[in-house]
Specification:
The protein is of the alpha/beta class. It is built from seven helices and six strands. The chain is 38% helix and 19% strand.
């Protein structure tokens, strides 16, 4: 590419009043002026092109694929603590969820929009309003509270009967594994009769919202399932 195509003609042919200089020196001065201007122009052009290229690649970068994650379970199962731990937030002084919490977590090309719905008995009838277009269902169980395990199982069976949740992959977080006497993943699976499920992928993941153990494995399983959809 010639210099004339990069620099407007009005600058290349600009007259500089240096008549008082000898002809040889006048030519050198004129060439020096043009070279200095050309160098500044090329530097500015290079910066402009660089910004354009960066902007192009920034715009062409694919957006994360969004997925709706519905997290349910009885009150005090640890749903909100799990959500905050997944978001790298503090889990001290957590109050019972009266409505819902939602947080977006970006992992491996996915934007996981996690809906944490309150688990109090009075709120459970409203769970069905959040079933639409769920990509993964997370059910959180307090594996250290054997007294409420039957109640958790009864609520879980009702969820499985919902048409809008038919075939939705299921991740069961057997939470509070840091407590003495917590049930194993196999015991939780048996209590929820998960081995009878034939219409969906499922997994029981032992975890502790307090320490964060097991949460990463659960998220990884969700991502693998979403990649197959």
């Amino acid at each position: 590419m010639t210099l004339g195509r990069l620099i407007p003609n009005k600058y290349l042919h600009r007259k500089v009043e240096v008549a008082w200089l000898p002809s040889t020196e006048r030519t050198i001065f004129t060439c020096t002026f043009c070279c200095c201007f050309a160098r500044k122009f090329l530097v500015a052009l290079s910066r402009t092109l660089s910004m354009g290229i960066l902007d192009f690649f920034r715009r062409s970068k694919p957006s994360p694929r969004e997925a709706a994650i519905l997290m349910l379970g009885l009150d005090n199962a640890g749903k909100t603590s799990i959500l905050k731990k997944m978001s790298d937030e503090e889990i001290t002084n957590i109050m019972p969820t009266q409505g819902f919490n939602i947080k977006s977590i970006t992992q491996q090309g996915f934007k996981l929009n996690v809906w944490d719905i309150g688990g109090q008995r009075a709120i459970r009838p409203y769970w069905r309003h959040y079933f639409d277009k769920s990509d993964v269902l997370i059910y959180v169980v307090d594996s250290a509270d054997k007294r409420r395990l039957e109640e958790a199982g009864a609520e879980f069976e009702q969820l499985l009967e919902e048409d809008k949740l038919a075939g939705v992959p299921l991740l069961v977080f057997a939470n509070k594994q840091d407590l003495v006497g917590a049930l194993t993943d196999s015991a939780v699976a048996e209590a929820l009769r998960l081995h009878n499920l034939r219409d969906r992928a499922w997994r029981v993941q032992p975890c502790s919202a307090k320490t964060g153990s097991g949460l990463g494995e659960g998220i990884q399983w969700m991502l693998e399932v979403l990649c197959k959809k």
